[in-house]
C-alpha cells in the first residue's frame, strides 16, 4: 500500500471515531470488507455499494443513513490532522503499535485508538494484567489492588485499568509506585479526563505508560461507553484480575468479556458479608476463575493457562 493510501486510511479511521459508537459490528465489518477510506466516502455520499456483499437480511442503507446523519460531528480534516500531529497519536489495525489482543474482538474491535504517553501500546500489552473493581472500594480492596499491581509491575508486567476511582486508581498508583508500566483506558476523549479529579494521575500514567481511548477528542462519557470500555480492557490484557466487585457491576462486565475471550480470569476473595466481594466469589465459584492473593499467584494463573506473549 502506498503512503497516500496509508494516510487516507489513517485519516478516515480517525474521522470514523466521531461517527461510530463503540463496538459497532456493522461498521467494523463494513471497514473490513472495503477499507476505511472507501467507507468514509460512501457514508458522505449516503449510499451502499452494489458490490459490498452485505447480508440481505441486514438493512445496510438504513445503517449508512444513520452514519451519514452523524457526519456533522466530524471536525474539518485540518482539525483532525492537527489532533494527530499534536500530543495524540492514532493506533489502528495494520500499524506497528496495534495490540494483537484486540483482534479477538472481531468486527467489534475499535476502529482506531487515540493514544498518548511514552509506552509502545502493543509491546506493553504483550505481558499485561487488567486490574479492575469497584469505584466505592473498601480500604481492604484499595490496599490489595495497589499491592498486587505493584507486585506484577515490579516483575515487568503492565497493569491495565480504567482510570476510575477506587480499585482502578489504586492499581495505577501501585504500578507507578513500582516504576512499572500502566495503561489507562478511558470512556471519553483523551482531552476530557474523567474523573476530573484524576487529571494528575492520568498525566502520571502517560509519563510512565499510556492513556488510551476509542473515543475521539472532545467526546464525553456515557453509560454505553463505560460498558463498552470493559471489552477493551479485557482484550488489551493477557489476563484480568477482579479485586472487588458487586455481582452487577462494570467490573463484572469486564470479567465477562475476559471469560468470553478465553483469557485467564482471576479474583481476590473477600469477606462473605461484603457485597463488594460477591462478584469475586461468583467468578471463582461459577466462572472457574483463579483465586489469587499475591502477585506471584496472578502471574502463575496466566502462565498456567498457556497464555504467552505474541511475537
Index terms:
2 domains, globular, Rossmann fold, disordered N terminus, alpha/beta, single chain, 311 residues
Helices and strands, with pairings:
Layout lengths: L2 H17 L5 H10 L1 H10 L14 H10 L7 H8 L4 E3 L21 E5 L3 H5 L2 E5 L6 H16 L3 E4 L5 H11 L4 E4 L13 H10 L1 E4 L9 H14 L2 E4 L7 H11 L4 E3 L7 H12 L3 E2 L3 H10 L7
Strand content bin: 5-15%
Helix/strand-derived class?
alpha/beta
CATH class label of the largest domain: Alpha Beta
CATH architecture of the largest domain: 3-Layer(aba) Sandwich
Number of helices: 13
Give the CA-based shape: globular
Give the H and E element order. Answer: HHHHHEEHEHEHEHEHEHEHEH
CATH topology descriptor of the largest domain: Rossmann fold
Major sheet details:
9 strands, mixed
Strand arrangement across the biggest beta sheet: 1-2-6-5-4-3-7-8-9
End-to-end gap: 23 Å
Number of strands: 9
Low-pLDDT residue intervals, each spanning 5 or more residues: 1-5
The tally of structural domains comes to 2
Write down the Rg: 20 Å
Q: Into which percent range does the helicity of residues fall? A: 40-55%
Mean pLDDT, nearest integer?
A: 92
Amino acid at each position: 500500500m502506498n503512503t497516500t493510501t496509508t494516510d487516507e486510511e489513517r485519516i478516515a479511521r480517525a474521522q470514523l471515531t466521531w461517527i461510530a459508537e463503540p463496538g459497532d459490528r456493522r461498521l467494523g465489518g463494513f471497514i473490513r470488507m472495503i477499507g476505511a477510506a472507501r467507507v468514509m466516502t460512501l457514508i458522505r455520499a449516503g449510499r451502499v455499494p452494489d458490490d459490498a456483499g452485505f447480508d440481505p437480511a441486514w438493512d445496510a442503507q438504513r445503517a449508512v443513513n444513520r452514519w451519514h446523519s452523524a457526519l456533522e460531528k466530524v471536525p474539518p480534516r485540518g482539525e483532525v490532522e492537527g489532533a494527530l500531529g499534536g500530543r495524540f497519536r492514532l493506533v489502528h489495525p495494520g500499524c506497528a503499535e496495534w495490540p494483537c489482543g484486540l483482534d479477538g474482538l472481531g468486527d467489534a474491535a475499535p476502529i482506531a485508538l487515540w493514544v498518548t504517553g511514552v509506552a509502545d501500546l502493543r509491546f506493553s500489552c504483550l505481558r499485561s494484567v487488567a486490574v479492575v473493581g469497584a469505584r466505592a472500594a473498601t480500604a481492604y480492596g484499595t490496599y490489595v489492588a495497589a499491592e498486587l499491581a505493584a507486585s506484577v509491575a515490579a516483575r515487568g508486567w503492565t497493569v491495565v485499568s480504567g482510570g476510575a476511582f477506587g480499585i482502578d486508581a489504586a492499581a495505577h498508583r501501585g504500578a507507578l509506585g513500582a516504576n512499572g508500566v500502566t495503561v489507562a483506558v478511558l470512556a471519553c476523549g483523551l482531552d476530557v479526563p474523567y474523573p476530573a479529579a484524576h487529571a494528575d494521575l492520568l498525566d502520571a500514567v502517560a509519563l510512565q505508560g499510556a492513556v488510551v481511548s476509542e473515543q475521539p477528542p472532545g467526546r464525553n462519557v456515557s453509560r454505553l461507553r463505560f460498558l463498552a470500555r470493559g471489552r477493551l480492557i479485557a482484550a488489551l490484557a493477557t489476563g484480568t484480575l477482579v479485586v472487588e466487585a458487586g455481582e452487577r457491576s462494570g467490573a463484572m462486565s469486564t470479567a465477562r468479556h475476559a471469560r468470553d475471550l478465553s483469557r485467564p480470569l482471576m479474583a481476590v476473595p473477600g469477606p462473605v458479608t461484603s457485597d463488594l466481594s460477591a462478584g469475586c466469589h461468583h467468578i471463582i465459584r461459577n466462572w472457574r476463575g483463579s483465586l489469587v492473593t499475591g502477585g506471584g499467584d496472578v502471574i502463575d494463573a496466566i502462565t498456567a493457562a498457556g497464555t504467552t506473549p505474541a511475537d
